[in-house]
Design goal:
Helix content: 55-70%
Mean pLDDT: 81
Largest sheet: 2 strands, antiparallel
Strand order of the largest sheet: 1-2
Radius of gyration: 27 Å
Strand content: 5-15%
Structural class: alpha+beta
Shape: rod-shaped
Low-confidence stretches: none
Order of helices and strands: HEE
């Protein structure tokens, strides 16, 4: 009986550590994705239309 309890306790610790690592990776990926998209949207180029001798020029 004692051996079975020890196996269950070890399995619970392994699962706890695994879920902790998984949760930490999810937080890390979320923060980096948010920063990436924030920087990407700030660097967006908005096309400007200039009229040059009755022609439309995009810059």
């Amino acid at each position: 009986m004692k051996r079975k309890k020890k196996k269950i306790r070890v399995a619970k610790w392994i699962l706890l550590i695994s879920f902790t690592i998984l949760f930490a990776r999810l937080i890390y990926a979320s923060v980096n994705a948010w920063n990436y998209h924030k920087n990407r949207n700030n660097n967006a180029v908005i096309p400007t239309i200039y009229l040059n001798n009755n022609r439309i020029v995009l810059r």
